[in-house]
Amino acid sequence: MRLVFLGTPAAAVASLEALAAQHDVALVITQPDRRRGRGNDVSASPVKAAALKWGLRVAESLEALDDVEVDRGVVVAYGAMIPASTLARIPMLNVHFSLLPRWRGAAPVERAILAGDEETGVGIISLEPTLDTGPLHAEGRTPIDEKTASELIDELARMGARLVSEVLASEELLANPWPQRGESTYAAKLTPETFHLTSQMSVSQARRVVRLERAYFKVQGQRLRVLRAQPHDEVVAPGTVLSRGEAVYAGFADGSIELTWVQPEGSRTMSGAAWWAGARFAGPVTWD
């Protein structure tokens, strides 16, 4: 089958590579090169880097679709809506990382974690001009358990690559999608405040934010990223961080967590105990 692939982040690479090994991928469209991480260096998206490795033609605008003839398109986290006029000419499948219609939108994996969902999955849908509303050709499920966002995204990326390959290989799956069923929810984009730990949170809420791997709070005006934490029965006042023995604890509304791995502002990743020792606090300190 002759395909066009649209995607941008690392989570889309597994699907691109699976399709490139099985089909004629005539064109890959991704978001433009941009600054990623610190510094001013501009780099290609993970999808562009993978496409060039496979020797595929790459474009950074949907206008490139005007001069290509393909049987179908596959979209995985492209980062923009596809116009109805384009979908009318090229039928497209979308690999979406949620159990639709739950968590339509930009951040389905993170929103499922934050909501305390017990499971999530991947849906292969026919792309429509409206947001993630198309009928399902295939669906896979997995428990969320205590997985971090990156662990879950990696798992769903592999699952999505397998499922979209199965759909494209099956005339029956392509021809017989079923409508989404259930209550729809919207996975709003993440903002810096999404990752801000507050003392009003419960321990379970705080741990879910930590599993997004960008959680932080401020101690004496300095941002401290909390990379790993575990619940503990240590009694700590909400909004206070202290050290007892070889461990460091932060207090929340209904209990405390042990800060196992952190990253102080402008520094490297370290254990909570190493951070506390280096900070040389005289005793318990407050955080916000």
Description:
- The chain contains eight helices and 18 strands.
- The protein is an alpha/beta fold.
- It folds into two domains: 2-187, Formyl transferase, N-terminal domain (Rossmann fold), CATH 3.40.50; 192-286, Roll (Methionyl-tRNA Fmet Formyltransferase, Chain A, domain 2), CATH 3.10.25.10.
- The strands form four sheets. A seven-stranded mixed sheet has the order 5-2-1-6-7-9-10. Strands 12, 13, 14, 15, 16, 17 and 18 form a seven-stranded antiparallel sheet that branches.
- It is elongated, with a radius of gyration of 22 Å.
Question: Strands of the biggest beta sheet: in what spatial order?
Answer: 5-2-1-6-7-9-10
Profile the largest sheet.
Answer: 7 strands, mixed
Distance between the termini: 55 Å
CATH level-two architecture of the largest domain = 3-Layer(aba) Sandwich
> Would you identify the regions where 5 or more consecutive residues have pLDDT less than 50?
none
Structural class per helix/strand content?
A: alpha/beta
Beta strand %: 25-35%
What spatial form do the alpha-carbon principal axes imply? elongated
Question: In the CATH hierarchy, what is the class of the largest domain?
Answer: Alpha Beta
CATH fold category name of the largest domain: Rossmann fold
List SSEs in N-to-C order.
EHEEEHEEHEEHEEHHEHEEEEEEHE
Number of helices: 8
How large is the radius of gyration? 22 Å
> Can you tell me the number of structural domains?
2
Helix content: 25-40%
CATH level 4 superfamily of the largest domain: Formyl transferase, N-terminal domain
Average pLDDT number: 96
Tell me how many strands there are: 18
